[in-house]
Amino acid sequence: MFKSAQAAKRKVITFDDDGETFARGNTHKGEHTSPPASTTPHTVNGELNKTLVKEHTVTNTTTLSNGSALSAVSSASTDSSEQQLTKKQKRKLHHQGDVRPKKLANKEPTTDAMIQKAKSLKKHRQSLPIYSARDVIIQEVKDNACVVIVGETGSGKTTQIPQYLLEAGLAAHGTISVTQPRRVAAINLAKRVAEEVGTPIGQKVGYSIRFDDSSSRESLIKYMTDGIMLRELLSDRLLLRYSVIILDEAHERTLRTDILFGMVKSIQKQRQDMIAKGRKDIQPLKIVIMSATLDAEKFSEYFYNAKIMYISGRQFPVKILNTVEPQADYVDAALVTAFQIHQEEAPGDILIFLTGQEEIESLEKLIEEYAVDLPASVGKLIPCPIFAAQDSATQQRIFEPAPQGTRKVILATNIAETSITIPNIRYVIDTGCHKSRGYNARVGIESLLVEPISKSSARQRMGRAGREAPGLCFRLYTEDSFEMLEEDAIPEIKRCNLESAILSLKATGIENVTEFDFMDRPSKSGLLRSLEHLYALEALDDEGKLTEIGTKMAAFPVDPPYAKVLLQSEKMECTKEAIEIIALLSVDTIFSAPSSKREEANEARQKFTSLDGDHLTLLNTLRAYESVKGDRDWCRDNFINSRHMRHVMDVRKQLVQFCERAGMDPKKSCGHDLEIVLKCFLAGFFQNTALLQPDGTYKSILGGGLTVSIHPSSSLFGKKREAIMYNELVFTTKHYIRGVSALESAWLSQAAPKYFGQRQA
Ligand SMILES: Nc1ncnc2c1ncn2[C@@H]1O[C@H](COP(=O)(O)OP(=O)(O)OP(=O)(O)O)[C@@H](O)[C@H]1O
Predict the structure, then answer these.
(1) In this predicted model, what pLDDT tens digit does every residue of 620-637 receive, in sequence order?
(2) With a cut of 0.90, is the ipTM above it?
(3) How sure is the predictor about 209, in pLDDT bands with cuts at 50, 70 and 90?
(4) Could you tell me the distance, in angstroms and rounded to a whole number, from the CA of residue 53 to the centre of ligand 1?
(5) Which residues contact 129 (CB under 8 A, 6 or more apart)?
(6) Phi-psi region of 376 (alpha: psi -120 to 50; beta: other; left: phi over 0)
(7) Does the C-beta of 462 come closer than 6 Å to ligand 1?
(8) How far is ligand 1, taken at its centre, from the CA of residue 72, in Å?
(9) Angle at 244 between CA 242 and CA 247, to 5 degrees
(10) What is the distance between the alpha carbons of residues 51 and 133, in angstroms, rounded to a whole number?
(11) I want to staple 310 with a disulfide (CB 3.0 to 4.6 A). Which of 63, 152, 325, 668 is the partner?
(12) Is 153 in the pocket of ligand 1 (CB under 6 A)?
């Protein structure tokens, strides 16, 4: 690796300049080429933005593609749907346009500035490729119970379609909800659409993510994570407050989205049946499935042969450049490429896709180190990390503009891969890798391994450029390697722990989860293992029915073992401490340890370290933090991440509310008798235990006695205790455990007599 910016400059990565340019439409090689973005003035307006409606032959499909004005409608079916929109009907639509916004108009504190901003964005909205398909989309959604929409990244699906449906009156009987797999997307899309609508966030347009609800009963468009939608199902089994549910980024096939597919499909049917039986108080539910990279036929089939609409056309071209040679070290290659771009390409920020926090932080340091040597004429290069373990406020920093004369380089995991528009991104560097979560149902162990991404992911990554101007996408792998990638990732439901999902299904009244209408069936062993664990947690009874404990557990916004801890804490009179520790565990870590000051940081941490392990160490730290009222200087001096601590306080507040709602007293404390807290955690984590072996290693109780290693970040790293409990076991380079505390082995059978009794039998 090079040691200075000059050296960085000398080392060069060669990219194949014959790379295709994705000027529009789908992403098949060679289909839509145009000259390199950097050398071609983009001739998008007036050509690429136009949208043609034409018939797709085989299935019940409408293709909306580039090349001609909307008036050049050629298909019989879409012809008629467009022609059906006569002036009179258009007026009617306009007239129908939602009665509620009018009522709201008086109440909303819409400022002139907001209205002006919305006006200025109107032109942009109308320049989006999707705009010329507006009326057809509205008509198709009105005419069909379910529609699948496939449109190029950046074409305007996520921000525009909900607004079109709102404008067409489809929120008259309920909110239009848009689900997102990631919270950062939910927040930013809502903010953008609120701006476009011209109202403050949280009113007409809102969002809801775990521990942060910025929506109201008056919200007509609501962006939310798929997890929140599942939670809402617990209190509104027919999702009656929604008139339209848009399941966005459906290609991601997260576990929760897959469960939602089945749930909304069934809810739509139930509502239809009720209406057929004459229920005047029930309205039909519309379902829209969206993505840029989707196996549309499969989704259509699942949703009763739903109508498919293809919308092609992207705003700006993105040229793809593959490396000529495979890269042995993609982090190094990303570093070199970033400096190459910075020194040779036109202004515009860079977005690099990496696999995880550690990699991001190490590249951040390298960039900072080398950027110091850059000549003044080049301007600064400022790294800006984003990964899932950050709190939402930290994640928002990537959206802040870089100071004038500097260039921002965002270092992201695949958290930034779909949905979001990060202003000023012109260059994407795709390492071609991500961390993929796996689950071995036989032994019940999760793994997190670096693996190649799918073609679909590569296209989404590329699509983060070309949203405000032409872009370049540097793929740090060869074109042949791209061709060898899988088309789509394996759905999470086939490779994940299913406990949360099963608990949600049971809590919404689905007794026999094995017969649930899954789009892709999870493995039998995965289902059985999760059912067994829920039984051991006493969430299910001998017949697999949800118990009272299980019902209560499902109401908490945390994974089943944590929910069990909260419930147990009431009996053991340590709810205060249980809430606090769970809140502390909700962030990746509350400690900061810059590599240049690692020793100092370790020393500072000793002050809070408990001999009993991480749970009580965290609690000690919280107590110290509270005693100084969260003073920032104190945090800095003690290497505590103050942002993460504020997030912890926020989560604590929310958990307190959940406990109160469940009729518990969140102030119940065990005082100084902290052994009780560890016993309480054991009620949820009795399976996550390991025993010390004569050779000094630890063997897990789960998975037939695996050798597990305490993670170096744990306060028990290198320590020997008779028995230990952990919150997390993940296979990376070895079986690492995190969130570790010491136990007495005698506590085990007391904590879960059912489980340990069975095992001994
Ligand atoms: N926060 C924002 N700031 C600036 N421009 C934005 C923002 N959000 C959206 N846009 C603009 O609106 C366009 C459409 O964005 P939208 O998210 O609706 O596209 P999409 O088709 O859903 O893309 P994807 O498939 O990548 O999610 C973007 O290309 C960009 O030009």
Answers:
(1) 999 999 999 999 999 999
(2) yes
(3) very high
(4) 22
(5) 24, 48, 49, 51, 66, 151, 152, 155, 156, 311, 312, 313, 314, 315
(6) alpha
(7) no
(8) 26
(9) 110
(10) 7
(11) 63
(12) yes
